[in-house]
Design a protein that fits this description.
- The protein is mainly alpha-helical.
Length: 398
């Protein structure tokens, strides 16, 4: 690749914005050595890096256009196709230096895309297997030591992804093991960004296990000791709020959520880590609605959850139907039969395409309500029965 034009343009943009290469690497969660090789024209940038640079430097796709123009022609039709997870796992076995680190990062990024685009397909197993390959090679020292920190940083990200999806698949013990590996690798490589994301995940998982004080302690350990970007602070304010409401401090939880909302509204995304894309106003509404549901204020919880499910309020994730399931629960709690039936019909449609174990369990709890409802119309109980049937259906039925 004749990457001179691309690397020169990026260097000019970084200089014009009074930023350092190290600061850019930190913001984008890329190893400084890897980014330096790209900016010196010694290594081809990945598509993910080009996209991240375009966003950080606010170039409206200019860098992507340059990268496409100066890229070498594909040697065969197959060369233009997106590599599969299997292809990437093959690279994980064979690469040794900077290419090993990049193969790990590309595997992580593709797994996240699959988790959100194909939400009916669980990626827990391929994510776990991919990290096991990397973990084995790290333990054996089977890599070029000149790139050790870059490889460890990339491995930390992959372990974090695996920990997240294993938890979403309700494999809690495995998720905790992968989280601890992610935290270890983030620390030894100096990757503060992935350390923060892993701690956020750990606080969230503690909350889901009912260990609310533990979740609160993790969140506050970060909030009290670190300088955080607005979006990352908002993330930990949400975790703080959930820990507070779980320990009976609802008014304090509301203050934390109000702070999170203010941070998001005033954030311009400059300097935010690329992995913070999922934290939106709609996500805060979802978390706020759940907080109110836990506190027993079902009426206000419905208001928040209704806001969170409005079109255009949020990004699509593999667990997007979780908020719909919580809304259905709240509507059933207040005997809003007609509205509940409409929401539950949407779950009937969505259920066959969901692989998130947490979300499916929540939807299953909604379906079970047919056994305890008093005074509900027949049409609603029939819809709940239909939902139960959909959840029991063979996922490979066409």
């Amino acid at each position: 690749m004749n990457s001179g034009e691309f690397s020169q343009r990026v260097r000019d943009l970084i200089r014009d914005r009074n930023m350092s290469v190290r600061a850019v690497a930190r913001h984008l969660n890329y190893d400084h050595a890897y980014l330096s090789r790209v900016l010196s024209g010694k290594q081809q940038p990945s598509t993910q890096l080009v996209t991240a640079l375009d966003k950080l430097l606010e170039t409206n796709g200019e860098l992507a256009e340059i990268a496409v123009r100066v890229a070498p022609p594909a040697e065969s039709p197959e060369a233009t196709e997106s590599p599969s997870i299997a292809d990437r796992m093959l690279k994980l076995n064979e690469a040794r230096g900077a290419d090993f680190a990049q193969a790990i990062r590309e595997t992580s990024h593709r797994l996240v895309v699959l988790d959100n685009e194909l939400s009916g397909v669980s990626i827990a197993e391929p994510a776990g297997r991919a990290f096991k390959i990397v973990h084995r090679r790290l333990g054996a020292g089977d890599y070029d030591p000149r790139y050790e920190r870059d490889i460890q940083s990339a491995a930390a990200e992959l372990a974090e992804v695996a920990g997240w999806v294993l938890w979403d698949a309700e494999r809690d013990d495995a998720a905790q093991r992968f989280n601890h590996e992610a935290l270890l690798l983030a620390n030894v490589s100096g990757d503060r960004s992935i350390e923060l994301l892993t701690l956020q995940n750990m606080a969230m998982q503690s909350e889901w296990r009912g260990r609310n004080q533990e979740a609160l302690s993790i969140a506050r350990s970060v909030l009290n000791r670190r300088r955080l970007s607005p979006r990352v602070e908002a993330m930990f304010r949400i975790r703080e709020a959930k820990g507070l409401v779980g320990t009976g401090r609802t008014s304090d939880a509301t203050e934390s959520l109000e702070r999170a909302r203010s941070l998001i509204e005033n954030s311009n995304d400059v300097g935010e880590p690329a992995w913070a894309w999922w934290l939106t106003s709609g996500e805060i509404d979802r978390q706020w609605g759940h907080t109110l549901q836990i506190a027993g204020d079902v009426g206000k919880a419905i208001e928040r959850l209704l806001q969170s499910v409005q079109p255009g309020r949020d990004v699509t994730t593999g667990y997007s139907s979780e908020r719909v399931a919580r809304l259905a629960q709240c509507l059933l709690d207040v005997n809003a039969w007609r509205d509940a039936e409409d929401v539950i019909r949407s779950l009937v449609t969505a259920a066959p395409g969901i692989s998130s174990g947490r979300t499916l369990r929540l939807i299953g709890n909604v379906a079970k309500r047919r056994e305890t409802l008093n005074g509900a119309p027949t049409s609603l109980t029939d819809t709940l029965e239909h939902l139960a049937e959909k959840l029991d259906e063979d996922p490979f039925t066409l």
